[in-house]
């Protein structure tokens, strides 16, 4: 699940770092963490870059949820 993966990734970065790097609101990040929302297209590349993974790796997490 994407929210679980994000929680793992959050252990390596602070919430503030993520919000600043990605340009999302704190509430949006919380919704991603809680599984109430998945990141939109404009957030995929900044998130992937921040965590040093490819957008494909991040999208695999998103597609697995839709599965």
Determine the number of helices (DSSP H or I, runs of at least 4 residues).
5
Shape: globular
What top-tier CATH class fits best? Mainly Alpha
Poorly predicted runs are none
Task: Write a concise synopsis of the structure shown.
The protein has 67 residues and is an all-alpha fold. The chain has one domain: 434 Repressor (Amino-terminal Domain) (Orthogonal Bundle).
Q: What does this 3D model show about the protein?
A:
This is HTH cro/C1-type domain-containing protein. InterPro entries: Cro/C1-type_HTH, Lambda_DNA-bd_dom_sf. It comes from Vibrio cyclitrophicus. This protein has 67 residues and is an all-alpha fold. It has a single domain, classed as Orthogonal Bundle (434 Repressor (Amino-terminal Domain)). 72% of the residues lie in helices and 0% in strands. The chain contains five helices and no strands. The longest helix is centred in the last third of the chain and has 12 residues. The termini are close together.
């Amino acid at each position: 699940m994407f929210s679980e993966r994000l929680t793992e990734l959050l252990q390596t970065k602070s919430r503030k770092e993520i919000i600043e790097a990605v340009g999302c609101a704190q509430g949006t990040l919380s919704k991603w963490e809680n599984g109430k929302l998945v990141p939109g297209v404009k957030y995929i590349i900044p998130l992937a870059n921040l965590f040093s993974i490819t957008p494909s790796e991040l999208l695999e997490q998103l597609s697995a949820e839709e599965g």
